[in-house]
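Lab meeting notes turned into a lecture example. A postdoc, R.K., suggested we walk through two folding results consecutively so the class can see how the record format repeats. The first protein's sequence and structure tokens come next.
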Amino acid sequence: MLERWNIFGMRGGVLVALGLALAVPNVGCGKKKADDTEKDEKASKKKSDDDDTEKDSKKKKKSDDDSDDTAKKKKKSDDDSDDTAKKKKKSDDDSDDDSKSAKKASKAPKSVDDDDDDEDDAPSKKKLKGLKPSKGDVDIVGSWSVAGKTDAGKKYKGVSKISKIGGSMFKATWTIGGEKQEGIIFKDGNVLSCGWAPKKDLGVVAYLVKPGMLDGVWFEEQHTTLGNEILKGPASKDTLSGFYTITKGETPGDKKKYSGTVNITIYKSGVYGMTWKMGSQGMKGLGLRSNHFEGSDTDVLSAGFNDGGDAGVLQYIIYGDGKSMKGHWAIPPKGGGEPGWGMETMTKDE
């Protein structure tokens, strides 16, 4: 710099003045230029700020859009979850329905005391389950339509005719599959106790169950009056099995007195096995109890018996106005084992 200044001083005053004159504009231009530069920088900064603001605005908008998209996605996800939950609920409901259907389809009575509410078996569309037992002295004489099912699930249909012997004593015939069966009936309130057998040698007894006692009436097919039989033993609401003593025995008609014992057992099916011993005479039969049966308003043990041991038993509950009845029946086993049994519905013909 010192060398540049010395050469400038030797050139004279004009050059100095000119130099000064030229220098001033240069200084002013420098300031303007500096000002312009500053303005440019400010403008550039403003533009940059505006650009940044615009970018920030765009970023915010994009962020808002992204948030909206996220919210929409979340809503869609929630909707999908709701749909999934609904589908799962429907699937669970369907599974429950299927499970219920499966249970309903597989339901079958395990014993003679179970109520098989199969409306397809009924000879009419009238639903019997849940109907109140009949009250008063309803008339059971007449023709009836029969429908039933064996313990093996085999269905059958037929007809029955009931006629009166006298008082509460009746006789009946059932025609099922071309085969005719005969029986006798004792009616006690809304419970019918029926004895039946392939041969005409048969009797029926109906015991009213009391604590420690079975209070019964009985007759055989040739009788027109009732006999009496009272048993003392382990009878209770929970069990009837055991040995009983005949504390009062009286035959129909001539009212002859007798005594003896009765042994009552129970099969797995709920059917009772019964054996009477009166001196040298013996009888065998099968029994059914009404207290487990739908609609029963009394506790009656019904039994069919004879000296050949081939008598069966049928017990009905009369419903409503006496136009329908539902029952269960049992027949002696062949060659030992469990007795055969089934359910039966009868509807009175108009």
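The second example is placed directly after the first for contrast:
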Amino acid sequence: MTATDAEDVFAIAAAWRESGEQVALATVTETWGSSPRPAGSQFAVTASGRMAGSVSAGCIEAAVAAAAMQTIATGMPQLLEFGVTNERAWEVGLACGGRIKVFVETLA
């Protein structure tokens, strides 16, 4: 993902927020080994189910979207970690052999 792509996701999320949507923004904060997306990649999710961007090229997106919905509901940010030593990573399809940390927060 280029800086322009990240800016586009943030711009989309900001526009959704300005139109009255509740929005969570997930950002890859750290990667190790073979990871699907680089640090800085972003994924925006609204309470109504709209999505933009990617933090995993699809392999953990559903789990991150579910966490984003929880963050919207509670207002509590989350730091998610998926990797080869994490059973959850295999459940959601992160079989690439790496590790990824994703920070999820509401967009105020």
